[in-house]
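Consider the tokenized backbone below.
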């Protein structure tokens, strides 16, 4: 890997979620050259990008780095694993200083089917164990309701953006803290088609602390793996993925 690519990863490791302009401040190279370096990192899935208005934010993607860690580093440098875990957590911090989690998933499906899997109450109940209930219009209320018939919602929020089938943004909060300033996090689903597959990027930001980041870092991969299985095979995974023991 070239010096420029390594430095790009280093800068995103120090502070993830930077714009191209912010990254340019640290490099003695032209904007066009840095854009090319970032394109290589994005193509390798080492960097994920999220649009916010006219800005394009760059995040270090921990998934392939974690796979490298498991396949190679664990064999030769086991004592360093805990330190690498700390690096991963720091790399997911957002510009605001609050933790942010970004996950990228590729699904053999269509944008419309992925959208429906995220918003249809029956489909979410099939792979999530909770039904996501709303009319999904901007400004509408939504609830994450248990499927045991109790009607209890374990998370609630507001639909911020709804652009079927490419983008959905919602706030998330504990029902007991709904309406309290600074207590809601924000989840963005970006759905992008490419030939016969869909690139789904989930960005969970404004998390309260490292404990909440750790929880969503385990929860989202399990839920989204179940979603992928449902869309590609017609059935969720045979065992609940969030019940798989860690380690």
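A designed sequence for it:
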């Amino acid at each position: 890997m070239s010096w420029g690519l390594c430095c790009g990863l280093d800068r995103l490791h120090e502070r993830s979620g930077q714009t191209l302009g912010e990254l340019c401040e640290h490099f003695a190279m032209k904007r066009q050259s840095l854009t090319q370096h970032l394109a290589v990192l994005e193509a390798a899935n080492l960097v994920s990008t999220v649009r916010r208005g006219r800005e394009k934010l760059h995040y270090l993607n921990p998934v392939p780095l974690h796979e490298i860690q498991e396949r190679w580093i664990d064999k030769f440098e086991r004592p360093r694993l805990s330190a690498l875990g700390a690096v991963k957590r720091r790399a997911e911090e957002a510009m605001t200083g609050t933790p942010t989690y970004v996950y990228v998933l590729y699904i053999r499906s269509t944008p419309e089917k992925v959208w429906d899997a995220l918003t249809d109450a029956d489909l979410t109940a099939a792979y999530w164990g909770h039904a996501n209930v709303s009319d999904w219009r901007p400004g509408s209320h939504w609830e994450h309701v248990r499927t045991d018939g109790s009607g209890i919602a374990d998370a609630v929020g507001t639909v911020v953006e709804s652009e079927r089938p490419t983008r959905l943004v919602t706030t998330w909060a504990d029902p007991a803290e709904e309406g309290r300033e600074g207590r809601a996090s924000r989840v963005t689903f970006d759905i992008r088609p490419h030939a016969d597959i869909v690139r789904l990027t989930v960005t969970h930001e404004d998390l309260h602390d490292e404990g909440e980041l750790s929880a969503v870092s385990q929860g989202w991969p399990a839920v989204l793996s179940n979603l992928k299985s449902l869309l590609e095979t017609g059935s969720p995974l045979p065992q609940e993925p969030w019940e798989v023991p860690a380690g």
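Strands lie at 47-52, 55-60, 101-107, 130-133, 141-146, 153-163, 167-172, 185-194, 197-205.
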